[in-house]
Write a structure and sequence with these properties.
Blueprint: H1 2-23, H2 34-50, E1 58-60, E2 69-73, E3 81-85, H3 105-111, H4 113-120, E4 129-133, E5 146-151, H5 153-161, E6 171-172, E7 183-187, H6 197-204, E8 214-222, E9 228-236, E10 251-252
Antiparallel strand pairs: 1-2, 2-3, 3-5, 4-5, 4-8, 5-10, 6-7, 7-9, 8-9
Amino acid sequence: MRRRAVFVTALFARLLGCLLACLLAGCHRGNPDALWNIVHGQCVPDQQQKGAPAPCAEVQIGDGEARGYAVLKDRKGQYQHLLIPTTRLAGIESPELLAPGAPNYFAEAWAARSFVEQRAGHPLPRTQLSAAINSAHGRSQEQLHIHVQCLRRDVAEALHAHLGEIGRSWAPLSVPLAGHRFRALRLADADLAGSNPFALLAASLPQGEGMGRHTLVLAGVDFEDGTPGFVLLDGRAALWPFDIGHGEDVQSQDCT
C-alpha cells in the first residue's frame, strides 16, 4: 500500500511538471540559454581580456569562475538587474547550491541592489528592495538568475502590516501577495552573512520534495525595534490553485 502511494505521488509530480511545462510553452519562446551565452561568451571573456565586463555591469571571478557571478541589466524596465553565476547552474533545483561552502548567491544579489539604486539616481530604503528567483516551472532561462528589483508597493505595505505574524520558523502568511500564497520566515541578518536562503528552504521541505517547484523572494524589512533584516518568502508551483511559482510577480518595474 505504501509503495502504491509513493508511486502515485511520484506520478502526480511528473504529470504536474509536464502539464506546467506545456502551459508555459508560450513563455519559453527564444533561446533558453541566452543568459548563459551572454555571461559565459561575452561578460567573462571581456572581464578577463579587457578588464571591462560588457555588456554586464559587473563580473566577480576573483575566486574562480566556479564561485563567481555576473550582474547584468535586465531588458525589462529601467531598474531591474540579474545576478547570474559564472558557472553552469540550471536554477533553484541545482544540487550545487546546497553543497558545503557553496556561494551565497542571494547575499551577492542583495549587494547588487546598488545597481538598482544607481539607475534610480539615489539610495533606496531596504523596505523597497528585493531579490527573487522563480521556480523551474516559472522561468524562461536555463541558467540560474536572481532578479534584483524594487518590491511592489502593495507587497511592501502588506509585509509591514503583517510583520508581527512572521516568526523565525516557516509559517503560511495570512494574506496573499500579488495574487500568490507564500510561507514566510523572519531573518534577523542585515546582510545575509550567516543565512543562505537556498539552504533554509531545503531544510524545511519534506523528505523527497525537490526545490524545483519552489520560488524564493528575499524582501528587505525594518523590524519593530528598527533593526534591519529580511522576510524570506517561499511559494510553490501547483495545479490548484494554479500557480507557476513566479515570485518575480511581487516585484515592480517602478522604483519611484
